[in-house]
Specification:
The protein is mainly α. Helix content is 67%, strand content 0%. The longest helix is centred in the N-terminal third of the chain and has 18 residues. The model has no long low-confidence stretch (mean pLDDT 97).
Length: 206
């Protein structure tokens, strides 16, 4: 955990320099505490860190990189394994923490983006396309990281009967594998698509 914190702190306070949050340290502490909750195994500060590092590599391709970063910070801020409204609750938490510091347009845009991470539907919003692709970038991770990711997801679903989990998880992965273009942006299609499909195929055939 400690290896991620310095990068996360740098990212957060760069956003503060741009947006001028009224209570940057307090909100940062609350977000780190949220992503460190004991029920999480994948939706942790590791996932947040991986998304934000990826964001830095594609920052020049984004129209509003700071808004995308802020959406990433909050997209899994609320995570309860058996809930179906985590993204909505995360968007509401974002509004609760930062609405007083941001314009209405920015607040509404980021809330819409956070909620969109639930279903990952196709979008014609350029920045949202990149946000959704970053959220799924784990599927194109190294074989070792992908295996770790699968173990982390399984731990988060420890409350499900193992046999049922195995069937349902294969269904989810098969859906990803069978999607003609998993990623929405040309950048991710060219750089991530093939690796993701290889990882998915390996798991589905195991």
């Amino acid at each position: 955990m400690q290896q991620y914190l310095s990068i996360l702190e740098k990212s957060w306070f760069e956003l503060h320099q741009h947006y001028h949050f009224s209570e940057p340290q307090k909100v940062f502490n609350k977000l780190i505490a949220a992503y460190s909750e004991k029920q999480r195994a994948y939706h942790t500060i590791q996932h947040l860190y991986e998304c934000l590092v990826l964001l830095e590599s594609i920052r020049v391709d984004l129209n509003d990189a700071n808004a995308v970063a802020l959406a990433l910070w909050f997209h899994d801020a609320v995570y309860e394994q058996q809930a179906k409204d985590n993204e909505l609750k995360s968007a509401e938490l974002f509004e609760q923490y930062l609405a007083q510091d941001l314009s209405i347009d920015i607040v509404e845009k980021i809330k819409r983006w956070i909620i969109a991470t639930q279903k990952h539907e196709r979008s014609d919003d350029h920045d949202l396309q990149f946000l959704l692709d970053m959220d799924l970038a784990i599927l194109a991770a190294s074989p070792e990281r992908f295996a770790e990711y699968e173990q982390q997801i399984q731990r988060e679903y420890a409350w499900v009967d193992p046999e049922i989990y195995s069937i349902k998880r294969k269904e989810v992965l098969a859906h990803f594998y069978q999607t003609e273009l998993l990623y929405q942006t040309e950048y991710f299609q060219q750089s991530f698509e093939q690796r993701a499909k290889q990882n998915l195929k390996r798991i589905l055939n195991s």
